[in-house]
Amino acid sequence: EGAPVSTLMEHYMLDTMLDLAGFGEGEGQMTTGSSNGNMIAMLAARNQAIETGKEQGLFGHSPLLAFVSADAHYSLDKAANILGLGTHNLVKVPVDEHGRMQPQALERLLQQHSQNGKIPFFVCATLGTTVRGAYDSLPPLVELREKYGFWLHGDGAWGGAALLDDELKKHFLPGIEQLDSFTWDFHKMAGTNLMCNVLLFNHHRGTLRCVCSAGEHSYLFREEDKNAELDMGTASLQCGRRVDSLKWFLDWKFFGKKGLAERIRHYLALSEYAEQVVHGIPELEMTVPRESFNVCFHFRTPENIPANEFNLELRNRLFKQGISLVGIAYIEEKLTLRLLITHPDYSRADVDSFFSNLVAAGKELMHEHLQG
C-alpha cells in the first residue's frame, strides 16, 4: 500500500534477474548489499539443515560447518558469527595458483569433518574474488553438492556483472543456473547508485518468507489480502526500506542489458590493456597474473628497500597529493596495488595517465629512499 509502483518495479527486476541467471521457480529480494545477501543465504541453508533451527536455535545439534574459499569475502566470517555458528566453524578451503577454490581440497575437508560428526551444510563459491578477481569453478562444486547435500551459494558481489553479457557469462559463470542461491551488487560494475543488491534463490520459492518472517506484524503486513504475494516486507530482514528498485528499474530501462553488457566488456578490455601497460614498464610488475577485471601489480624495489612498506608509502603519497586513490591488498603476504576500473568514461588514455603519474611518484620516492 505504501509504495505500490516501486513494488511492481522490484518484482519486474527480480523476475528479469532470475531469468538471466537461469533460476527456475525461484524468488529474489533486494538487500542492503552482498554482505547481507551472503548472510541470508547462509541463514536459509542453516534452517534447511536444522528444521527446528529458526524456533529453537542450534542447541543440541551437531556443529554446522560452512566452507568458503581462503580468498572469500570477510562478510562470510561475519555471517558465521551473527548466525551462531562460530567463526571457527567457517572452514577456509585452499586456493590454486589462480586464486580459485580447490575442489579436491574441499572434498577432503568435507569427508574429514563429516567423519568427525559435524554437518557440512553450506558452501560459498566466490565469483570474482575481491583482490584477484578469481572465479571459483562451479561444475565440480555442483558435483560435490549432489554427493554431500550442502547448500551451494554464489557470491557474485563483484564478478556477478559478467551475467549481463552472454559470452562473459559462458566464460566466467558456467553452471550458475545450478546454484541454490546467488547474490550480486548492481552498484559495482553495473554502475547503479548505492545501494543496489539482489539476492536470488533457485528452486526455493517461499523460502525467503519462511526464513525472514517472524513475530507479530499484522499491523503492517496483510498476508490474508489477495495481493499479499506482492508484498516484499515479510520476505525481508528489514522493516523500513528505501525505494532502491526505482533507480535499478530506470537504469535497466535506459541502458538495457545490451548497454550494460557493453560497459562490462569495456572494463574487461581496459583491464587487459592495463596489464599490458604494466608488462611494458620496467619499474612495475604484476603481483599475480590477471584473472578477470582486477589488475594486481606493484612497484619494483631493490633488495635493501622493503617492497611492502615502499608500495604502501607510494600509494599513500598518491592519495595525499590528490593524484589517485588506488586500492591495496595482500597476496601471500605481499602487498599489491589493485587497479579496478568501474567508470564508463574511463579510457586507455586515462589508464596511461594513471600509470605515468604512479611511476613518476614512485621514481621520486625511490630517489628519496636511496638518498636517505
TrEMBL record:
Annotated signal peptide = none
- GO annotation terms (biological process): carboxylic acid metabolic process
Q: In which domain of life is the source organism classified?
A: Bacteria
Where N6-(pyridoxal phosphate)lysine occurs, the residues are K188
- Asked whether the UniProt record includes Transmembrane among its keywords, one would answer no
One GO MF term on file is: carboxy-lyase activity
Q: What cofactors are annotated for this protein?
A: pyridoxal 5'-phosphate
The record, for Gene3D superfamilies, names: 3.90.1150.170, Type I PLP-dependent aspartate aminotransferase-like (Major domain)
What keywords appear on the UniProt entry? Decarboxylase, Lyase, Pyridoxal phosphate
A GO cellular component entry from the record: cytoplasm
Question: What family does the Swiss-Prot or TrEMBL record give for this protein?
Answer: Belongs to the group II decarboxylase family.
Q: What is this protein called?
A: Pyridoxal-dependent decarboxylase
List the lineage, top down: Bacteria, Pseudomonadati, Pseudomonadota, Gammaproteobacteria, Chromatiales
